[in-house]
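Design request, tokens follow.
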């Protein structure tokens, strides 16, 4: 692969690839730091901080930058020190919405570096960029440590590389057009040298994994709609908290930006709520469609929209993952190839048995795929605020995955079994439309 002036028309930068990678990374680090600094400056401009010194603001911005990248911060309680670990807690609740900023900047940098590299040279640009970003992270952690906020320098060096490296690799893949052009390995040629049974098995499992992804994506979309409806219904309570805080225009805007940063987390919380497993808002609390029990919550406007009181019909929300599974089963019927059903039909002549068995196996495998993906999302979205009871916030990854796997699996069985009827109704509707025209 060579993505230089002869292919794109761009002249590019006449410099070594490792240096170009370092410059691209420095730009991304500075821009993401400025994005974090803007709301802090807005609060400072309205006298929102007791200590308004420049050094305090700079350290707060650096700590926020590290948190956005997923670095845990150790908060020391009053009368304790971060070094003694007495009365302290970890702040690990990452605003996933703000994490998209460095991810997208890395995606852009990855595309630019792939455009300037041969296949066997891309590692130079990536290595240079990752070394600079790791150095930026460890320097930020070293400078921004305080007696009240402890930062592990190892985490500060390694953890920010995860979203950044992921975005850079995806961006480079997007520019190259294929993994073979990106890393020089032709996956199609490798697969063609395997046996037919291996190719069928691989194709089947890949389609099942995609069906699980479709189910989780659909469930997240439906959960986001329910979250929007819930915010609309409880909007008066949200406004009441804003008015009680009386943070002013700049402070209210900064608070809104922070809440928008946690919007992806809230969508995952809503997904866990619809699955029935629910989520925690503090140690010993539980928020779910089958019951809600929470203690005192901080004065954050969005938390006023948490469903409480008598929820007589909330159990209806459990149908959301099932509907997502139905869509995934229908998708598999249209896009995938059920090679397991074909293999089973060759071995066993009783069609009623092979159709039932293959459909149930499909539901189990797709449910497991969806459950594992939901487990990962729940793990990313949950965390600790490091203060008092709020050391347990978010869904339990294991139970979220188990509930969602069972519901999606049932939906996939229904969707795949009803798929032929849905396809027939769709084709009849298209024929009627053609006759009208």
């Amino acid at each position: 692969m060579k993505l230089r002036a002869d292919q794109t028309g761009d002249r590019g930068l006449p410099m070594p690839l490792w240096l170009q990678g370092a410059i691209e990374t420095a730009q991304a680090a500075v821009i993401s730091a400025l994005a974090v600094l803007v709301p802090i400056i807005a609060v400072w401009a309205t006298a929102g901080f007791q200590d308004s010194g420049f050094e305090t603001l700079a350290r707060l911005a650096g700590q926020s930058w590290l948190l956005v990248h997923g670095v845990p911060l150790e908060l020391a309680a009053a009368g304790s020190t971060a070094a003694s670990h007495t009365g302290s807690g970890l702040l690990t609740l990452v605003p996933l919405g703000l994490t998209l900023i460095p991810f997208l900047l890395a995606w852009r940098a990855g595309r630019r570096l792939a455009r300037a590299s041969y296949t066997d040279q891309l590692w130079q640009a990536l290595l240079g960029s990752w070394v600079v970003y790791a150095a930026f992270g460890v320097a930020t952690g070293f400078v921004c440590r305080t007696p009240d906020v402890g930062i592990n320098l190892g985490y500060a060096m390694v953890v920010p590389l995860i979203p950044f490296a992921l975005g850079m690799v995806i961006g480079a893949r997007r520019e190259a057009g294929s993994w073979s052009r990106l890393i020089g390995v032709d996956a199609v040629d490798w697969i063609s040298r395997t046996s037919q049974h291996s190719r069928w098995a691989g194709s089947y499992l890949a389609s099942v994994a995609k069906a699980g992804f479709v189910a989780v994506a659909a469930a997240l979309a439906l959960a986001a709609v329910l979250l929007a409806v819930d915010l609309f219904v409880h909007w008066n309570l949200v406004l009441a908290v804003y008015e009680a805080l009386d943070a002013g225009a700049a402070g209210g805007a900064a608070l809104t930006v922070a809440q928008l940063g946690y919007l992806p987390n809230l969508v995952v919380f809503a997904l866990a709520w619809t699955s029935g497993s629910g989520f925690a808002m503090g140690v010993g609390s539980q928020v779910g469609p089958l019951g809600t029990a929470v203690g005192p919550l901080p004065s954050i406007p969005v938390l006023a929209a948490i469903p409480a009181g008598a929820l007589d019909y909330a159990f209806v929300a459990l149908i959301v993952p099932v509907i997502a599974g139905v869509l995934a089963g229908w998708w598999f019927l249209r896009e995938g190839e059920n090679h397991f059903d074909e293999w089973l039909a060759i071995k066993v002549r009783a069609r009623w048995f092979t159709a039932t068995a293959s459909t149930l196996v499909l539901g189990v495998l797709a449910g497991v795929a969806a459950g594992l993906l939901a487990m990962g999302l729940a793990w990313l979205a949950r965390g600790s605020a490091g203060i008092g009871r709020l050391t347990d916030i978010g869904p339990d990854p294991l139970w979220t995955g188990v509930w969602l796997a069972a519901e999606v699996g049932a939906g996939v069985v229904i969707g795949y079994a009803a798929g032929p009827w849905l396809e027939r109704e769709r084709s009849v509707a298209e024929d009627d439309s053609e006759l009208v025209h």
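Comment from the thread starter after seeing the answer: thanks! Strands lie at 73-76, 88-91, 149-150, 280-281, 286-288, 291-293, 393-394.
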